[in-house]
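Pinned message: reference record for Gfo/Idh/MocA family oxidoreductase
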Amino acid sequence: MTQKTVRLGIIGLGAQGGMYAGLLAEGKIPGMTLGAIADIDPAKKDLAAQKHPDVPFHDDHVAMLDSGDVDAVVTTVPHYLHPEMTITAIGKGIHTLTEKPAGVYTKQVEEMNDFAAAHPETTFAIMFNQRTNPVYTDLKELIDSGELGALRHTSWIITTWWRPQGYYDQSAWRATWGGEGGGVLVNQAPHQLDLWQWLAGKPKRVFARLAFGFQRDIATEDEVNAVVDFGDGASGHFMTSTNDLVGTDRLEMLFDGGKIVVDGSKKVTITRLSKNERELSDEMSMQDVAKLFRGEMDPSSVYTVEEKEYESVWGQQHIDVLTNFAAHINDGTPLIADGAEGINGVRLASGMQLSAWTGRDIDLVDFPADEYLAELNARIEAEGEYSPRS
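Predicted structure (tokens):
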């Protein structure tokens, strides 16, 4: 008989895990209840007892997996732990929703993906909650329809991730190679890296300049400029940082038949050309061009502009992913984001780092995973605080 109420276990009662526990306790996730909580920090046991006194608490996630208290788990733990905890849970038949990013380096994510693929009866999903944002779901539908034609260029400037020095100082593991595995690309920007390739397609190569400890006293990257090659002449630019106090969030996508501009992840401007740009270029006389740019021609004969303003859906997105996760387990509803897709953003972030470390462009199709891990481990060993990864 189909399980109609999924008992979710929270691994890690931090800010994110605490939010999920609250949503479940308040009954905001249809088809899902709070089954148990696990955390190695003794202080979290007291916190759980205060906020969720009737919910079983475990000081070890494996004990929770074996307890019979949960049907599924979410891994709200440091990035490095996502793959190993996911593998352990799936190996015990527990459905798993992993937090983003899927991991720090592609070898561990590939191992997780391969293990999950060998256990198709167990649900494997990832918390790409921005994929539920109507701004981007509408754009995905438009782009996939082919109405605007082939992609030519895309640029995303996402510098709204300002973090003061105190943010990094509050936890010794933050923005370290051994503790976190990276800076802005691993912590703040994974959602945009996922959305970018979800909308535009997976890049084939990347060349990047990263600044490490540029404006913050940290080891990892706090500013990124990257150029990617999508193939067939299409290119892209990605910029992000944590040192811009006012910040910019602007996505542009240029196609053969039009252009999309998204400001602040809420205002969308869609320009549709009357014909393919090359056709317009070939058939318009220089007199027509002059009239167009002097404002003497009705521009609607060449292009039309549609503007949309979206309301904020902050907070609802996590609810939507959790609800979808439960519905997939209960009824087979298609996942918003299959866990296996998490490797795309990890590979792109790692490619940017490796390009900056080596000074060359990096193949993302045949990604040099061993070289990346060797470079990462060299930096972990130089820090002297954590063991190398394998």
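Pinned by admin. Summary line: The chain has a mean pLDDT of 96.
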